[in-house]
Amino acid sequence: MKKTIKICFIGSAALFFLIVTVGCDSGPDNTKPVYEAYRFDQKVIEKLPVYDSLAVAILKKLPLFHILNGNDSNQAFRYSPLSDESAVFKRLPPEAGTDIDRYFTQLGTNFIKGFDVFHDSTIKIYIRTVPPGSSKVNIEEHLSYYPAGTKMKQRDFPFKDTILNDRWQYWARFSKPELF
Predict the structure, then answer these.
(1) Are 170 and 162 in contact (CB under 8 A)?
(2) How open is the CA angle 127-80-165, to the nearest 5 degrees?
(3) Mean pLDDT across the stretch 44-61?
(4) Torsion of CA 116, 92, 140, 123, to 10 degrees
């Protein structure tokens, strides 16, 4: 009886492994062609004055974000109204003012999901995640704001970037969704 159960368990495990292996995309990595064909959204670039105004509004409240975030100098303050992550602020306190939320509304949900503000005053804006289509490749689009005109790093594959001016860099990350 124990031998039969053991054989059944081993057989079930082997069948599960076979199903998972066959179900995986074992073909060539199709991330690179999507990366090479990708073009930055001109509508995002056209909205750069609104993103600029948002960055100024965020920087005006920088001390408040540091207080809200605690003393961890390595941790960014993250705000994303539609996030389901527990470590993300979904609402700003009244003392942060209404400017930030006003710019979120002006940009719309297809042009901003949230932002991180770091202790060195750089800001990372989450624009959108383009879900995988037939290519099965996720594209996460971001803007980074460098208030001091800090030297921007050029990113390599699987990241693609373009420098918009001395403070703004538009970049995207390309990835294949994980099986689990």
Answers:
(1) yes
(2) 35
(3) 95
(4) -30
